[in-house]
Design the sequence.
């Protein structure tokens, strides 16, 4: 709140700020959490709570105001293909079930179609989940674009101990391009 301000009514604007009669201030995380918890369209995700430990999404979802994009633009990434170049993806019985384009996914470690994430930290699976988790599992986790399709391109056995052949990275990029990926994510 600006110094000397007395207003108790602050309104959001389009620039991630709060505006009142005496000035403007940037929203902080608690403002966003309060707004998110109060949004009736997302009660099943927020549990109506400002406590992020009660949410079925990551705090970044709220900080970046992803829920507003879902609501304002009526999209959750439908029609977008994302290539995730990482340690693979574990997806059969979790919130990535149905999200993986198996025909265009590939394992460049063993040169086969087994993209199972065997990394002890599940780095590839977590990276993919941040993007595309669909909330369908009993644990119920959501990514920022649960409507998108994922192409998993495995280039490492595991993040910390696996060998990364730099020769395989261009192969994965080529595969992503040829399969029509709109976005390529590589966080290894």
Sequence:
């Amino acid at each position: 709140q600006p110094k000397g301000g007395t207003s108790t009514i602050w309104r959001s604007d389009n620039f991630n700020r709060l505006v009142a009669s005496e000035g403007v201030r940037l929203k902080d995380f608690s403002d966003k959490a309060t707004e998110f918890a109060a949004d009736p369209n997302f009660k099943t995700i927020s549990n109506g709570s400002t406590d992020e430990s009660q949410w079925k999404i990551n705090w970044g979802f709220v900080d970046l105001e992803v829920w507003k994009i879902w609501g304002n633009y009526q999209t959750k990434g439908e029609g977008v293909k994302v290539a995730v170049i990482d340690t693979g993806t574990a997806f059969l019985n979790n919130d990535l079930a149905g999200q993986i384009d198996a025909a265009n996914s590939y394992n460049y470690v063993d040169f086969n179609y087994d993209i199972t994430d065997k990394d002890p930290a599940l780095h590839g699976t977590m990276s993919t989940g941040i993007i595309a988790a669909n909330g369908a599992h009993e644990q119920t986790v959501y990514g920022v674009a649960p409507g998108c399709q994922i192409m998993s391109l495995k280039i490492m056995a595991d993040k910390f101990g696996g060998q990364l052949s730099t020769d395989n990275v261009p192969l994965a990029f080529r595969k992503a391009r040829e399969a029509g990926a709109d976005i390529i994510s590589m966080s290894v």
